[in-house]
Amino acid sequence: MKTILLIAADGIRELIHQRLLVGLMLASLALTIAFSVFLNSTRKYVTESFSEDRTASESYKGNETVSETDRRKVREQMESASSAFQAGFYGVASFGGSIVALFIFSTAVASEIRKGTIRLTLSKPVSRTQFLLGKYLGGVAVMAGYALIASMAIVAFAQTQDVDLNPAIKWSPWLMFCEQLMLGSLALLLSLFMHPIIASVLAFFAGNGFYSPPNPLYFVLPSYSDFGVFFDVLLGTLVDWQHVAFLSLYAFDFVTIMLLLAIWRFRTKELV
Amino acid sequence: MPAIRTENLSKTYRTAFGKNETSAVEMLNLEVKEGEVFGLLGPNGAGKTTTIHLLLNLIRPTRGVAFLFDRPVSETDVHRRLGYLPESVNLHTYYRGRALLNFYAALCGVPTEQRESRVTAVLKLLDLEDAAERQVSKYSKGMAQRIGVAQAMLHDPDLLILDEPTASLDPVGRNQFREFLLELKRRGKTVLISSHILSEVESVCDRVAILENGVLKRIGTLQELSAGGSARLVVKDVPGSVMEALAATPAEVTWLQGQVTIRCQDDSVRQTIELLLREHNVEILSIESETQSLDEIFFSTIKRETGS
User: Which of A168, B217, B222, B260 is the most buried (most CB within 10 A)?
Assistant: First the structure.
């Protein structure tokens, strides 16, 4: 276990020194925040103009107070804009995270083979299984950091902009993290057979969100789309914990199978 | 117990769909004893690096097996006794020198309390103390090579596998490296060194193996290899018919003041000449074995195989 952790720590060190990756992560977070700022300002504009219209029409009628129906309409409008803002935040963070995950996991082992650094590492008492698991674990830690930063950003942003957090968005960092680990494990496996870019594209489009029954691919390909909470956030649907627990188990199961296949492949792979 | 042993070790590369096959190593039977400095020689593409990669389990043999200290190379644990320096040292450039060595020391299982002192000692040994806190990406080729040697030495391994270790070193660096190898030899370490630089191998190796096209051509100590080599025969009063017969052999014949010197390139030529002289009752005045340098042994082996 100590060796796996050493390789994982090395993997984290390598990843945070990769300008392209750090750039991708920062760009993803910056885009997320920029998109949220845009949505929030739209929300403010809509609610303010709605209130101004109401006030103008009420002044014309000579009424002193806003009716209950109008108040409800304003509230609904605000809630809907708030949900759109959160769904947008989630959507961009999730997509950006997926790209980052594909980059990290598809290059984790492939770049070590390409650069030849794997030769020195494996000349030490490090088994191929330990090396592969260490590399995966390093990627997991970086993705956990990404999910954590993304969730902290949304909480901070919601608090400063006076937005109530949607119930579904609370589960989104965890589900996003699970989805990215699935995506990563598949990209890692495929990268042991082909070029990392092709592996990334295949891993991304292998998600059965692109297929629906009765297409047989739906039943054999990973269900990334089940982890998406975009519409739950947008519509304000409640995501119950049983559903989250089931998805977590599914992700764990999928990642385990992918890693076992990757270990099997890596054990016989020529490393020069 | 041999430090390295291979039995019929073979590696064949196949192109897509298995149409063409290239044999990189063929039926290699090698044994390197503990405490021995062993040179692996051969021209480019001879199979030296492939043999090393097979010993490190980086690639799988098509046939045969390889052992390190009598344990299959696939056993990771045997790597605790092994240090390896690749031909081109590719390091994790995001580390500083000392941190990189600390990482490798941890992987080698050097206990935490000994790690720092071990790293400092190796840095000092290889004259890298000033560069210890510098980013590895800023290292020159020579420095990278030295840090490569440092990582191989960290855990004081019993066996060192060095693939073209001086390829990127200047003459001063090469000389230092030769001293370093001699020091390893004095300390009883087993070293397998693959090199193009024959003089370097000649000065430090106990035994050498010459590979060509993946096949082991010759193996032995320098004395053993040169013993079967050229010889000089001196004869007198050689009849004209024998002179004609001698001229038809591959031997070099020189005549001076009635004395004929016949230089035989190898054992087989010598045997032919001796037989010819005896048949014609020509007295052989002296036979001197010529000591060959490693260069001569190497080139005569390669020439013989290529027929040039």
Answer: A168
